[in-house]
Amino acid sequence: MAGVTAVAVLVGLAWVVLASPLLTVREIAVTGTVRLDPGQVRTELQPEVGTPLARLDRGDLADRVEALPLVATAEVLPSWPDGLEVRVVERRPVAVIARTGRFTLVDGEGQRLMDVPEAPGDLPELTRSTERAGDRAVGAAVAVLEQMPPELRSQVATTEARTADSVTLTLRSGQAVVWGGAGQSQEKAEVLAVLLTQEAEVYDVSAPKTPVLR
To answer: Per the confidence metrics, is the pTM higher than 0.70?
Structure first.
């Protein structure tokens, strides 16, 4: 009799966990968002409302959230008894592309993140000539910005790259920086920091061992 009772208890527990409406998804909490609307995440996972928490494939849910343009990584955790917690890490914009009536934020991988009505004052503008030059040029331009120390990146007003090996920066002070390709960016940044203590109109660090001032 004790064995039968134990089996019945186990069956009952299994039903509560896997099938009972008591432990199904009712609430979805989203944390870590800055630019991303948490409602977009909830909409993406809305079909799971009513699904038992124990049956969810959390890896699949995280993949669906990470498919949103602004999301770098996502972690989906159960919040017993009836919730999901979604922890989001957003992609970080490093530049902005000006378009007619709007501005597009771009991250360090060249991915378009979102459109905004006004250009953020702290982001360099990626020129349209760079955008027309193709993905490799865009990739080089944003890679340079991504690898650049924040204190130097904050001085950059615009970034242009007609090819992947011809990145040029215009500083907010009006001076130009010939950067070249995205390689050796750390060394180039260190050299430029020293050069900026000297007056010049153009700082050429494309060959960082032999920089040129003009």
So the answer is: yes
